[in-house]
Specification:
Low-confidence stretches: 362-366
Radius of gyration: 22 Å
Number of helices: 1
Number of strands: 18
Largest sheet: 18 strands, antiparallel, barrel
Helix content: under 10%
């Protein structure tokens, strides 16, 4: 709440001037969705819920191409789970979703507030998922934001530089299992440059983790803080087929029997659109996660392969994602059918997964996607 109050004050300083400007552009948009699902477990589980995310944006552009704009949106939701027609869980509330002010031009932007920060080349298994938790199975690509000050500059040769400071974020994000200290700023940056056939980038981030805020059962009674540094490398090339790679090296001062100081994540991916009918798009990624006591030790590994495909059928689209764990020899299957009608989009999801999902080490997996089941969703965009 302290962060929310801080950014309400920040944005309120800019809004009066924008609202009184003659050429100010104001927009109200958003999306509303409802869903219902069935998990074929023992006993059978049902899930139903709804969500509304209204978004208000306002902006003004001067003759110098300097632009000042802001966005305010909230995530209001309710979710219920049942077993044997008895409630086994519920969640509901209204939370800030985006809350930022931005000053920008053709070459730079400076954005402050609750915002989404993501980058990298991978799409399904992302080593550079540092600040978001976008699930490739989610057609809405929803993710919580972070409180940050982000600056970006775009050079004439298409290179771009990023600098950021995060502060006041006390929940885990990305691959984290231990949250950051909300009292100590996080900081980092990224440099992306064009290379023959594509682009490449290097990223860095430093944070201070806070054991007292952990919900991990292995260190639930932990205390104190420790520093953590991340180095990221990624690149993407168009060589007839699309090729990309991501690598993240994480070093922390926490060294216990369950948490080794070095973590390495690597993805290699490829995609191609085949000229069959309306065009069949396919992409595949190979992912490896390892945790070790020394940087060059193989450590404990988790290895996955993934394959995604989608095929347009007029106003409809059929797609799916397939994962295979080389570690425990398990399969993860997800099929979706999409139909578009004016502002409405309808989805049908089918899934067949292990009872325990191990793809993402984020601790926020929806249990309704474990095992076998079906889900329906309707989305209205306004």
């Amino acid at each position: 709440m302290k962060n929310l109050k801080r950014y309400i004050i920040l944005i309120s300083l800019f809004l009066p001037g924008l609202l009184h400007a003659q050429d100010t552009i104001c927009k109200l948009k958003g999306q509303m969705d409802g869903y219902a699902g069935l998990n074929i477990a023992n006993p059978i589980k049902w899930q139903t819920g709804a969500r509304l995310i209204p978004s208000f944006s306002i902006g003004k552009t001067w003759k110098t191409n300097l632009k000042l704009d802001a966005e305010i949106s909230v995530n209001s939701f309710l979710d219920y789970q049942f077993s044997d027609w008895k409630s086994i869980g519920s969640d509901y509330g209204i939370r800030p979703y985006r809350f930022w002010v931005r000053l920008s031009s053709e070459r730079f932007e400076l954005r402050a507030g609750l915002q989404k920060i993501n980058f990298g080349s991978a799409s399904m298994l992302r080593p550079l998922m540092w600040f978001d938790r976008m699930d490739p199975r989610d057609p809405l690509q929803l993710t919580d934001g972070v409180y940050a000050l982000l600056g970006r500059y775009y050079f004439q040769n298409n290179a771009n530089a990023w600098l950021w400071i995060l502060w006041g974020n006390d929940k885990t994000k990305g691959w984290e299992t231990i949250p950051s200290s909300s009292r100590i700023p996080e900081f980092g940056g990224r440099m992306q440059i064009p290379v023959p056939g594509g682009e490449a980038a290097i990223s860095f981030h430093h944070r201070t983790a806070d054991l007292s805020g952990s919900v991990n059962p292995l260190i639930i009674n932990g205390s104190g803080t420790y520093p953590e540094d991340r180095l990221g490398l990624d690149g993407k090339w168009d060589l007839g087929v699309g090729l990309w790679t991501e690598y993240s090296l994480i070093h922390s001062e926490l060294d216990t029997a369950y948490f080794q100081p070095w973590t390495k994540l690597f993805t290699l991916g490829m995609d191609y659109t085949f000229g069959l009918g309306n065009g069949l798009y396919m992409a595949t990624e190979f992912f490896r996660y390892s945790n070790a006591n020394k940087v060059f030790d193989p450590g404990v590994n988790k290895t996955f392969s993934s394959l995604t495909a989608n095929y347009p059928l007029g106003i409809n689209k059929l797609g799916g994602i397939l994962y295979y764990s080389w570690t425990d020899k398990s399969w993860y299957r997800f099929i979706d059918f999409q139909r578009q009608s004016d502002n409405w989009t309808y989805y049908l999801f089918l899934f067949w997964n292990p009872d325990r999902i191990l793809i993402y080490n984020t601790g926020n997996e929806n249990n309704m996607f474990a095992g076998k089941g079906i889900q329906l969703m309707a989305v209205y965009n306004f």
